[in-house]
Amino acid sequence: MDRSRGFAGGRLTAGRVLRALLVACVVSAISLTAQQPAPGAPATAWPQFRGSLALLGTSAATLPPTLKLLWTYEAGDSIESSAAIVDGVVYVGSQTGDLHAVNLSDGSLKWKYRASPDGIGESSPAVAGGLVYIGDITGTVHAVDVATGKAAWTFKTGGEVKSSPVISGDLLLIGSYDSHLYGLAAKTEGYVHGTPAVVDGVAYVAGCDEILRGIRVSDGNEIFRVSSGAYTGASPAILDGRAYYGTYENEVLAVNLKTRRRAWTYRHPERNFPFYSSAAISGGRLFVGGRDKMMHALDARTGKEVWSFQTGARVDSSPVVASGRVYVGSNDGKLYVFDAATGKPVQQFEAGGPLSASPAIASGRLVIGSQDGKLFALGG
Prior knowledge:
By secondary structure, this protein is mainly beta. Helices cover 0% and strands 41% of the residues.
């Protein structure tokens, strides 16, 4: 059922379209700030892209010292969407156009929802209040019942949706290539439980118009903008009053959200390649992959490089930090595990196909999809 424009009654009251963000192409994801250090994902769930509203890319889960392959699920085509994990179920989109719900315990299929024959790209699902939300390449946003796999509602935007949805209270935020950031009422007949609380109610978005914006969630008004100096495909991570993200001008930026000025800029002295990977922040360090085929660890305060490691291909996958280790995929078909403190590689898992999706971690297991259509679960 298409709930694509404003209407009253039914299962959805359509929310406001937030017209404040008019950019050449819209952000790849959204981040919500907190003045105090924001928690990452809890140990038992990974409810959205990057695990938490602040997009920190961290998990409280404990993984075993050595990961073993537990199961493989065949999705039928490339997986570029990063998984969400809630209540023992893995949700992930694929280029078949399907949203797959797979049991975390054994990889068995719970249900499969056909979103679009044109495919689901990089939009990663978010789960809240008994619904799973995702966007597709045709520009449609879907809300799907987690129990039945049936559509609760759909909303049609004017362009491709690569942005990943974020739930703030009863509001669903998502960007589209029609140059808009949408605020849709996520409320249905059941109560919507949000992911981690939004302390200040501000969304920070960095996009293809080279601008980092702060947008008030309650009314969609833009409250500030800062020049990034370049096209941005990465999503900002927010911690301690700073936004951290990479650009296509081969830089990683730290922006002070109070002064609205750059705190630092990192550029590799020899290898000049874009940063598409979204950063993870843990223990005073920022971890980010680059199209220079390298994994970088930077001091979050100063932007100085602490360590780096060269993989066999570009790193578009966004790293996740858990239990003092960094987990990230590479287009060389390997999942890399590093000691976060030293950068020492402690394990490599051969997936075969390129890994541009990002890991999701919950309940002692790591899940990641590959471009050859396989979804892997690793654990003890």
